[in-house]
From TrEMBL:
Residues 197-424 are annotated as: Phosphopantothenate--cysteine ligase. The gene is coaBC. CTP binds at residues 286, 296, 315-318, 339, 357, 361. HAMAP family: CoaBC. Pathway: Cofactor biosynthesis; coenzyme A biosynthesis; CoA from (R)-pantothenate: step 2/5; Cofactor biosynthesis; coenzyme A biosynthesis; CoA from (R)-pantothenate: step 3/5. This is Coenzyme A biosynthesis bifunctional protein CoaBC. Its cofactor is FMN; Mg(2+). It comes from Corynebacterium phocae. Residues 12-180 form the Flavoprotein domain.
């Protein structure tokens, strides 16, 4: 995970907290940012302090906390905090604070700080679904996004009380990762609205019997990070997830759960029909047992020898999508992105094997990473190359700088964006 490098100066992050019940989650956000080596200044509104006490924020951030422009006037805080910030994140951002910021008001320390800030400003809304969907809020969100403020999509789920819907504050760790993505220079500026993006993630499970399967160690993290960043750029995202680590559902994405390669194949076919971008980040099993037993196999049972398994090949989903595009069954301008996790050996490097795979698969972009010896699978950081074809038919590789899976996702999506623009 990308931490502030030892010896480099910590970044100044202002955590604004407005008055909603999710204010307690801001404590986890502050802790996460501090643990990554950043200097955090919490600026709550007066109403936020009705939910969480000043002492908690002071203890967690190690910095003084005030709410009013008339506190410590000699330090000119209402200007200094915003001027020296590398990022301002407000979590939770209520409908009221967004309305105030959209109007350019500055009647407390938090709104004054936002008005002064020239750094990335990220709002993580949390409110009841009715408030999120109200025309006034929609207009304010559109105004803020147009002005370059990042307004994150809220998560779907249980709200205060019995209702569920969009309006939940995303997981604080997700917010922190998105803040770091912006700090790494990748804006989440909602420029993908109107695009449909389908992403597969995780590993498949091929069952031998009802309780045993052949699987792999893919965590699903890269695919989930892609879904998160694409949704925060405004795309309509369908995330088709196989077996993964326990990961929060990316805010704003629809999730479809599958287990086997054939289920994944069916789901990808169904959802790719109107897609503008399809990304196959899933680790798909190439083979499955020829016959899955209906009841649990017994050691030494006659007929089925567990020591030898007959396997049959699974469909190549990515190659199939390339063929469907050629046959006009999916949009002709749909961009298809593959992943290749390679290890080098005596006969070739990881990149050389990936070049061969890129040609064989026929996709538009191939994200390559070198795996093995503790690299990539299950790790929080990633890096690699994105392969593409130039107009002259040469294969070009773009370096994906090391970073968190969200930062890598942003770089991959930048390559997709670049290709889409070049083809239009
Ligand atoms: N893939 C797929 N369907 C499969 C196997 C792989 O769509 N049955 C996709 C993966 O999601 C990935 C890309 O193809 O985007 C490359 O996967 P990989 O397993 O590296 O490629 P294989 O073709 O299986 O080649 P090999 O395992 O021999 O390296």
């Amino acid at each position: 995970m990308s931490k502030t490098q030892p010896g480099s100066s910590p970044r100044n992050i202002v955590v604004g907290v407005s008055g909603g019940i999710a204010a307690y989650k801001a404590c986890h956000l502050v802790r996460n940012l501090k643990e990554h080596g950043d200097n955090v200044r919490v600026v709550p509104t007066a109403n936020a302090l009705k939910f969480v006490g000043k002492a908690t924020f002071e203890a967690l951030s190690g910095n003084p906390v005030s709410t009013d422009v008339f506190d410590n006037v000699d330090e000119v805080q209402h200007v200094n905090i915003g001027q020296s910030a590398d990022a301002v994140v407000i979590a939770p951002a209520t409908a009221d604070i967004m309305a105030k910021i959209a109007c350019g008001r500055a009647d407390d320390l938090l709104t004054a700080t936002v008005l002064v800030a020239t750094c990335p400003v990220i709002l993580a809304p949390a409110m009841h679904t009715e408030m999120w969907e109200n025309g006034a809020t929609r207009d304010n969100v559109a105004t803020l996004r147009r002005r370059g403020i990042t307004v994150l999509e809220p998560a779907h789920g249980r709200l205060t009380g019995k209702d569920t819907g969009p309006g939940r504050l995303p997981d604080p760790a997700q917010i922190a990762e998105l803040v770091r993505t912006e700090l790494a220079g990748h804006r989440l500026n909602f420029d993908w609205s109107g695009k449909k993006v389908v992403i597969s993630a995780g590993g498949t499970r091929e069952y031998l019997d009802p309780v045993r399967f052949i699987g792999n160690s893919s965590s699903g993290r890269q695919g989930f990070a892609l879904a998160e960043v694409a949704a925060q750029r405004g795309a309509k995202v369908v995330l088709v997830a196989g077996a993964t680590d326990e990961l929060p559902v990316p805010s704003g994405a629809e999730i479809v759960r599958v287990e086997t390669a054939r289920e994944l194949h069916d789901a990808m076919d169904k959802h790719s029909q109107a897609a503008d971008v399809v990304i196959m980040a899933a680790a798909v099993a190439d083979y499955r047992p020829a016959d899955a037993a209906e009841s649990k196999l017994k050691k030494g049972s006659s007929g089925t020898a567990l020591s030898t398994l007959e396997m049959v090949e699974n469909p190549d989903i990515l190659k199939g999508l390339v063929e469907k595009r050629e046959a006009g069954q999916i949009k002709s301008q749909c961009l298809l992105v593959g992943f290749a996790a390679e290890t080098g050996d005596q006969s070739g490097s990881a990149l050389e094997y990936a070049l061969e795979k890129f040609r064989r698969k026929g996709c538009d972009l191939l994200m390559v990473n070198e795996v093995g010896r503790g690299k990539v699978f299950g790790q929080l950081d990633n890096s690699g190359w994105v392969l593409s074809e130039t107009a002259a038919g040469e294969v070009e590789s773009t370096v994906v700088e090391p970073g968190s899976k969200q930062v890598v996702a942003a770089q991959i999506l930048d390559c997709v964006d670049g290709l889409a623009r070049a083809r239009n």
